Amino acid sequence: MTNTRTVELEGHIIDSGMMQQAFGIVMDLGGEFDVEQFDVGKQKDKTSYCRMSVSADDEKKLQEILHELHQIGANLTDPVDAHVVPSPADRVVPVGFYSTTNHPTDVRYNGQWLSVENIEMDCAIVVEPGGSTSNQNSTSSGDVVDPDAEDGPRAYTKVLNSVTEGDLIVTDEAGIRVKPPERPRDSSGPFGFMQGGVSSERPSESLIGEVADEIRETKEAGGNVLVVAGPALIHAGGGDALATLVREGYIDMISAGNGFATHDIERGLYGTSLGMDMETMEHPRKGHKHHIYTISEIIRAGGIAEAVEQGLIKEGVMYECVKNDVPYVLAGSIRDDGPLPDTITDTIEAQNAIREQAHQADMVLMLSTLLHSVAVGNCLPSSAKTVCVDINPATVTQLLDRGSSQAIGMVTDIGTFVPTLAEKVLGEADE
Amino acid sequence: MTNTRTVELEGHIIDSGMMQQAFGIVMDLGGEFDVEQFDVGKQKDKTSYCRMSVSADDEKKLQEILHELHQIGANLTDPVDAHVVPSPADRVVPVGFYSTTNHPTDVRYNGQWLSVENIEMDCAIVVEPGGSTSNQNSTSSGDVVDPDAEDGPRAYTKVLNSVTEGDLIVTDEAGIRVKPPERPRDSSGPFGFMQGGVSSERPSESLIGEVADEIRETKEAGGNVLVVAGPALIHAGGGDALATLVREGYIDMISAGNGFATHDIERGLYGTSLGMDMETMEHPRKGHKHHIYTISEIIRAGGIAEAVEQGLIKEGVMYECVKNDVPYVLAGSIRDDGPLPDTITDTIEAQNAIREQAHQADMVLMLSTLLHSVAVGNCLPSSAKTVCVDINPATVTQLLDRGSSQAIGMVTDIGTFVPTLAEKVLGEADE
Amino acid sequence: MTNTRTVELEGHIIDSGMMQQAFGIVMDLGGEFDVEQFDVGKQKDKTSYCRMSVSADDEKKLQEILHELHQIGANLTDPVDAHVVPSPADRVVPVGFYSTTNHPTDVRYNGQWLSVENIEMDCAIVVEPGGSTSNQNSTSSGDVVDPDAEDGPRAYTKVLNSVTEGDLIVTDEAGIRVKPPERPRDSSGPFGFMQGGVSSERPSESLIGEVADEIRETKEAGGNVLVVAGPALIHAGGGDALATLVREGYIDMISAGNGFATHDIERGLYGTSLGMDMETMEHPRKGHKHHIYTISEIIRAGGIAEAVEQGLIKEGVMYECVKNDVPYVLAGSIRDDGPLPDTITDTIEAQNAIREQAHQADMVLMLSTLLHSVAVGNCLPSSAKTVCVDINPATVTQLLDRGSSQAIGMVTDIGTFVPTLAEKVLGEADE
Amino acid sequence: MTNTRTVELEGHIIDSGMMQQAFGIVMDLGGEFDVEQFDVGKQKDKTSYCRMSVSADDEKKLQEILHELHQIGANLTDPVDAHVVPSPADRVVPVGFYSTTNHPTDVRYNGQWLSVENIEMDCAIVVEPGGSTSNQNSTSSGDVVDPDAEDGPRAYTKVLNSVTEGDLIVTDEAGIRVKPPERPRDSSGPFGFMQGGVSSERPSESLIGEVADEIRETKEAGGNVLVVAGPALIHAGGGDALATLVREGYIDMISAGNGFATHDIERGLYGTSLGMDMETMEHPRKGHKHHIYTISEIIRAGGIAEAVEQGLIKEGVMYECVKNDVPYVLAGSIRDDGPLPDTITDTIEAQNAIREQAHQADMVLMLSTLLHSVAVGNCLPSSAKTVCVDINPATVTQLLDRGSSQAIGMVTDIGTFVPTLAEKVLGEADE
Question: Which residues 389-408 of chain D have a CB within 8 Å of chain A?
Fold first, then answer.
C-alpha cells in the first residue's frame, strides 16, 4: 500500500462519533490506518485530536476513502491548495469535482482558506479569484478570508444546473476543510433532549413543549423560523393554530405547495377542505368542486395578496402571511390542480426560491409533507435546527436520513400537534 | 341446479349494503339467485324486504352460500328447527357445526325462537333443552323465548375449549336467524359521523370531541365503558389523563396486560417509565431495572390492591382503579417480565376474564395495543360501540377488519389523544 | 320540501353498491327520497332499474345532493339540455360549473347526447357547437353523437389552466349522464379476484401471477401498458427485471421522474445506485457523487437518447426504452438534482405529457412512487385497469382512494415484486 | 464530587462505538470523567484501552452512571468481589440487584471470576457457593472458573419469577465484567454487509442471498437455526417454502403460536387459510369455520404428532417438523382460538420453553411476528445472529431496539421472502 495520506480530526471526535465513523470508513472501504497521534480530551470540555495516516492499494480507492473521511470532517493535513478546474460546458462538472456536504466548509486557494458561501449538500464549489490586486499574501495560512471583503477571492456553492462553462470548480479532496457540528458535551442545551433521531416511546406533550421552547428561543435570539407545510395540516385541523402562530410573529417564512394554499383558502372561503365541513365534518363525500372554485376565484382576483386586499380571503394561514408580511413560496408539483397564480410551476425556479428561504432559516419545522421537506432539506446547512413531524414514521426517517445532524423527528398527529404547539408557544410567551 | 333454498332479507337492506353483499356472495360462490319478491322502502324510515331463492350445483356449494348469507343476516324462510348434534368429545365439535357471527342471533328449537346468550364470533351454539315440563307449545312460532324464564330451553355460545362431550351443538344453517346492525338512515346518531372505517384527512380535535360526546352519552345512558390499553399509552404520557377519567367515573373497566400496569406503577413509584423520567425526559437510556424493581415490590406487597392499601402506590391508573373500584383484567403474555401477582398467566383463564368484561361493555376504547384489542374484540357483540386508536394504521385496520360494524378507527398519537379526550370529556361535563 | 327532482339508476345497481350509495347520499346530505319505481334484476345477468324523486329544503341543498348522485351514476330523468355558460376569463370557470368524474360521461346539447372526450376527474366540460350546418335535429334523443363526425358539436374535458375566456362550460347537473363501471356479476374475469381494494393476508406469489396474467391479456388484446416507476425500484434491485419487460415488449410507456432515470443510468454507468454497488452492496455510504456525475455526463451527451447512441449508456430501463422506442415522460420535481435534459421541469407542461400517456393506457402499473402515481391517476379514466404496488400501505391506500374503481393495491417489496413479475410474465409467455 | 470510581474499557472501543457511548453516558447523567490512560489501537487489528475515573455529586448518581457504563462493557477496575445478598422472599429481588445485559458476563466470587451461565437480558444473577471443599484459593485472580467443574461455585441467571427466598443475588456493579460483542474491524465477515440496522434502499434479492449464505454457513459450522414464525407467513403463501427448508434440514427449531400451527394445518387439511383457497384465492370471505374445525380435529386426534401419525396431516411446516424431529414450541396467547393440544397456554411455562430454545440457537430468523419475536429476543444472548423480517418497519425497528447488536432487520414481503430464501439456500447448496 504505497498510496498514503495523512488526515487530522479535531474536536469532540469521540463522543460525537466522528472517530468511530473514521475508523469504520477506512475499514469498510478496504484501507488501512495508522494512528500517529491521539490526544484524548480528558474532561468533557476538552477536545480531542487525532492524526492518522490512511493507505490503500490504489490511488482510486484512497481517493474514495479520503472523500468519505471528508464528509465527516477528517481533513488532509497537507497545507496544499485546492485544485480548481474550469467547467468544460454549461451544467457539466469536471471529472473529480468535489461534491459538498451540508457542513461549514473552507477551501484553500492561493494559500488562503476561503469560507464557502451558501453551503448545502451535493453542490459544486466555484472559486472566484477576485480582483487584479492579488491578495494571496495578505493573510497567513490558516486564517479564513472574509467573504465580504471587496474584490478578494470567493468560494461558493453552485448546483449543477447553475454551473457555467469556465467556472473554476474545486476537484478532489485536497485543500478543503469540513467542520461537522459536534454534539454538545452537555445535554442541557436546546434540543439536547434528543440529539437527533426519531422520538419513540416518549411523552408527546413534553416533547412538543421542548419544540415550543426552541421556537421561542430562536425568536428571542433574532433568528428566523421557517415552516414547511403540507395539505394534511389543513385537513387535520391545524390551520387555525398555524395562522395564529403566523399572526403572533413566531413564523418568518412559509414553504409549501399549491395544495396547502388552496386548502387553506378553501377553508376560509367555504368552511370546507376538499369539500368537508371542518366544524361539523358533514358532507364528507369526495368532491373537488370547492377546490377548483377556490383556485378559479383566486385566479380571477389576480393572486392571493390581491384576494386578501379585495376582502375575498378573510382568514387562514395565507391571509395572515399577507397581512403580516410573512413571505411564502408555493412550489408547483405534477399533482397540482389549477394552479394558483402564486404557484411557481417551474421546478428549477421553485428550487431557487426555496434555496433562498432555506439559507435564511435558523430553525425549520417540517410539517406533514415529504416532497417539500426533502426539497427544503436539500438546501439546508447542517447548522439549521430542524424538526420533522409526520404520522408516518417512514417519512420522518427518510427526512432525517437526508437531514442535518441536529434534525429531530417526531411521529405524531399533525392535527393535535399544531394546536398543542401553538398553545405552548403562546402560553409560555405570556408568562 | 336442483339444490335450492329460499332466504329472506328484511330491514334497511339496501343502504346497509346487505343486499349488495347477498348478491355478491351468491355470485362469488358460483350460485344462482332468483328474486321472488322485492319491496323497496320508499322513504328513509321504511324498511325493505327481499325474498329470493338461491340454488347451486351441489348441496355442498349451496351450504357454503347459505352459510355466508347467514353471516350477513339473510335467513332461511323455512320454519324448521335448528339441527342439534351432541358433541362427540370434550373440545370437539360435530361435523357441520354452526359457527357464530357477532350479531344478535336466534335459534329455533321445538318450534320456539331462542335468543342466543352471550353472542360472540366463532363460537358454537349449545342448546339446553330445559326442564321436564315441555314448553314447546307454549309460545307461538316467531316469538322469542325469554332466556331468564325458569326451566325453559336456552341457547348460548361456547368457545371450542369449553365444549363438553354431549353438549347439544347447533349444526348447519337451518332454524337460525341473524340480525346484523343496520346503518341508521340518518347520520345524526351517535358515531354517525363516521359509520365505521378509519378516519383520514379529518380534523383530529373535532373527531376526539365526537368520541368524548359518545363517552358522556354512554355514561348518561347508564352504559359501561371499557378501556383496553397498552404500555405505549404510559410511555407517550397519557397516564395522568387516563387516571383522571377513571377517577371521575367515566371508565368502568380496564383490560390490559402486565406491561401496562407495571409501567403505570413504575411511573408512580419512581417517576420513570422503563427508566425514563416522564417530566424531564432525562436518563433516556434503556434500563429495565426500575421495571423489575416495580414488579418485585408489588410481589412483596402481595398485589396491586395491597400495594395501594399499604401506601406504596399513590397515583396512576391502577391506583385510581383500586380506589374507585374499577375492575381490571391483566392478561399475561409471553413477552412479560415478572409478572405481577395480579396478572393472569394462563391464556385460557385470561380469555374467560376478558370475555366477562366484553359482554358487559357498551362502549370500548382500544388504545395502543394490538394484542389486547384483538383479544377483547374477539368477544364483543356487534352492538358494542368500539373506537380503536393507534399511530400505526396497520393496527387500526387489522382491528377493524375483525371488529363489529360500528367500530371506528383513528390514526393518531395516543400521547396527545388521551389528554385531549380527557379535557373534552371533563370540560363538556362541566357545562 | 318543494325542491324536487327525479333521477334514474340503471344497471347492476344493487350489487355494484350504487343503490346503497344513492340512498346514503340523500340521507347524509339531509334530503328525502321517494322510490317511484324499482325493478330488481331477478337473476345475475339481469339489470335493475330505479326511479326515485329526491327532495330537499332548499335548492342549494338539492343541487348538492344531485351533484353527489351524479358522481355515482344517478342521472336526472329530465330530457333537458345541459346548461352552458361562457367562461368569464382565462382559467376562470363560471359559477356552478360541472366538475367531472373519471367515468364515461355524456352531455346533452341541442337535443343530442355528446360523449365527452378525454374524460378525467375534476375537469370542466367544454362544448364546441360545431359547424354552421346545424345538426341539432339530425339525431333522435338518446343517441350519442359520434365525436369524430366532421363539423358536429363536440364535448371534451379541460383542466382549469386550459380554460380560455369564452369557452362554453357546462354548469349544474342537468343534461349529463355518467356511467360508472359496474362490478361484473361474475368474479371469474380478470382482476375479479380482488374487485378493488388492498390485498392483505393473501399469497403474494399467486397475486403477482394474476397481475402477470393481466399484463399478458392486455398485450394480447392490443392494449397499452403504462408503468409509473419511482427511484426505489432501482435501489431495491428491480431495474434488470423492468428492463427485460421493456425489451420483451410488455411495457408500452413509462412515466417517471428525474430520480428514477438518473439512478437507472447511474447503475449502468457505474454499477452503483446513489453510490452503492448493486452487486456486492459494498460501499454503502451515502454519496451523491455518482448521481451528479451521471446527470453531468448525460447533459454533456445532450440527452438520454444521445447518450445511448454514443454508446455511453449500454443497459438499463432507459436504455431499453430508447432501443425499443418505448416513449417515456420524465416529470420534474422540486427535489430533483440536475436535472437531466430529458426532464420536463415545468409542472404544467409535465402534466400535459402525463395526460397524453394516461389517455392511451389500458393498464397501469404504479410502482413505488406516490408523487408520479397520483399525477398519472388524476388523468386516468375509470376504465383503465390499475395496480398500485408499494411497501408502504399508506401510499397504496392514498392511491386507491383517488383511483378508479378497478384499481387494486398490493403491499409488497418492489425488490422482489418486479423480478417475480418478470419471471411469471415471461415464463407464461413461453408456454 | 467526592464520589469517584475507576473504570476500564478494552477492545475495539472506538470503532464499536463503546467509547462514544461511555462519554455520552457520563455526560447525560450529569457526571464527570477524567481519562487517566488512553492507548489507541494503531492499526485495525489492534485493540484500544481506556482507563478513566468517573465522578458524580452523590453516590446514587454515581451508581446510575456505573450501571449504565456496565451495560456497554465498561468495568470497574477494582478487583473486589461482587456483593451477594440473599433474596428476601420468593420472586423478590434485594435492593440494588444487578440486572443483566445480554452480553457475556463474569462475576467475581471469592476472588474467582465465574462465567455467568445462560446469560440473557433483565435477569438477576444467582451465585451458588459450591461444595464444602472451598476452592477459593484454587485459581488465580482473573481466571474464569469452569462452570462444569464439579462442586465449584457457579453463577447463572434467573428471571424474577424463578427467584427463590434465600437465593444469593448479585447486587451493585462491583465485581462484574461485561463483554459486549465488538464490531469486527473487517466488513467481509458474515453479516458484515449490514453490521446491524434496518435495510433500506438496498437490493432485496441480494440481501436475501446474504441471509441464505449465513444459514448455510451456520449449518456447516454445526450451529442451530431457530425460526420464529407468525401466521402471516402462511397467509402470504410462505408455508411450502418453509416446509421445504425444514425437510431439507436447514431449520433446527421452530418457535410459533397456536395461530401459525393452525393455519399451516388448515392449509393441509382443507387447502385454505382462514377459509381462503391458497391456490385460486377464491372464497376469500371471512370464515373461521375451517380454522375451528382444524383445531377440533387435532384435539380429536390427540395432538399434532398423533394427527401426523394417523395420516390426518400430510404436508406443511408442522408435518415436516414431526417427520424430521424438528422440535417446536407453540406458545399460547389471549387471541388464540382453540387452542391446539400442543399449545402451551401458561405464559410462564411457555417462556421457559422458549428460553430453552433460545439458549441453543446460533442463528434466529424472526418472520412476521412481533409477539413471538420479542419473547424469543428477550431470552437471546447477544452472540446469536438474528434476522428480523416484516413488512411493517415499526415491527422491525421495535425488534432491533430490543435485540442484540448483531441483529439485522429487513422490511420486505414475507410472501416473496421465504420462497426466494428457500430457492437461494437450496440452489446454492446444490452447487
Answer: 393-394, 397
